[in-house]
Write the structure tokens for this entry.
Amino acid sequence: MSDNIEVRHGTDIRKGEMVRYTLRERMCHWLSAVSYVYLLLSGLALFSPYLYWIAYILGGGPTIRFWHPWVGLVFFFVQMWMHTLWQREMKITDQDRQWGKTVKEYVTNRDEKVAPTGNFNYGQKQFYWAMFYSTLVLIITGLLMWFPEVVSLRAWGHSLMPVVIFLHCIAALVTIAAFMIHVYMGIVFVSGGLQGILWGHVPVSWAKTHHRLWFEKVQREDRSRISSSEF
Amino acid sequence: MSNGTLEIKAISGHSGKAPGSGVSRDYDVCKLVDTTTCIGCKACEVACVEWNGYEFRETTFANTYQTMPETAWNFWNLIKFNEMETDSGMQWLMRKDQCMHCEEPGCLIACPADGAIVQYSNGIVDFNQANCIGCQYCVSGCPFNIPKFNAATKKVYKCTLCSDRVGAGLEPACIKSCPTGCLHFGSKEDMKFEAKKRVDQLIANGHNDAGIYNPGDPDPTPGVSSPGSIGGTHVIYVLNDAKHPENYALPADPSVPLFVKLWKGPLKWIGGLGMLAGLAALFGHYVRYGPKPLDEGDEGRRAQ
């Protein structure tokens, strides 16, 4: 069996499969996911009294107040790392805008009417940018909230802090909306999507169905790679 | 003041009704500070530090009599020596600064920690450090710059209006120490009456701008304006010039910051209901449309 396994980008590829995400991309994604979920839970505990019970599960109020900023820092740096990996892939193109016009067909599974899409579809790209810009707002406001005693030493600090906390909440709510859709799409709605981000490989047929333009591009590149090689 | 007045009225960061709230109360307590008879002796500062068991902390000298620029985590009672130039010379406006024990406390509204800030039905707003998480949102919610953070314990502290003494039927330590009698303590109604008597006396003596500082009181003393939207305070002042509280380093129109109200009010509800609506919408979508077919022509797969 092992003869049939090809290893590419830290990913095991069997017959009829192709690399969806490299090992590095997967690591980055899951680091970001784990830190985000901690931030989400600890943040929700502090957002609403109805969710303060989460604080007790995570070790108590003072504990989450200590860890939330540190994990936030980790999340920020992972996001920046992800940006170096995917920033170019996430550029919104004319093809994406075409796809955007057929988004209604996409979400209602009328897939034959959906415009073909590349490596990431328009929805995935919008999710990415929503997360990226929210992260920037969250890190700036978050750093101010980490040491409010420094900011509040100044008179303007007192009027600034409520605005800062408010913006932190707004940006967090934006990420929550995006996150809920992302998890639903990735795990429930698009079967096979979770496998791709976990182990990196997807069936060729999956790629053809969901990311046709990307599939065709990889095919072209593979053909040129094989034809230019010795055998 | 009886223990009955220490029934809990509101608890920070607490879902649902506060236990023990809505119980009938006899009276709410109030501290009256008559700034016109304060001599700036600082006895109240010492009494406060002593009663609460803190070391007398370092003082700051800035060419005034003032002990330090503002209250500190272990120094809750500070006489502010405000200097004001007038046509007839310098006016020395001394005012005892401490927690105002607002009826609508910005600190309690802003606090996310369950039970870290407690408002008793007698009006006292008290911090419970055991539940404090040190986020300092209370600092941003206070219009009077009162709660102070201790970086070593990561907790926030402020004047308790001597809730421990009041609960045992005693007056606050600062009241007991005042040698001129400029500090009074009793029911809010009585203190408003005493304050009005003193203001009338001052006006009769030609201090026409004398008045009471009791911002936002829904039942203000007749003839006294009470700006602000914090529902009145359980520390009230007699000021020689009530038209210009800024001269005493008091905010003219204290209120809970707009963004604290927006975040703890509409945003909390819109955010919470929005998250639930989002979950419901996704579930509805799944039931209506289900997952995408795995591959083209994979319709049979779903039947399995």
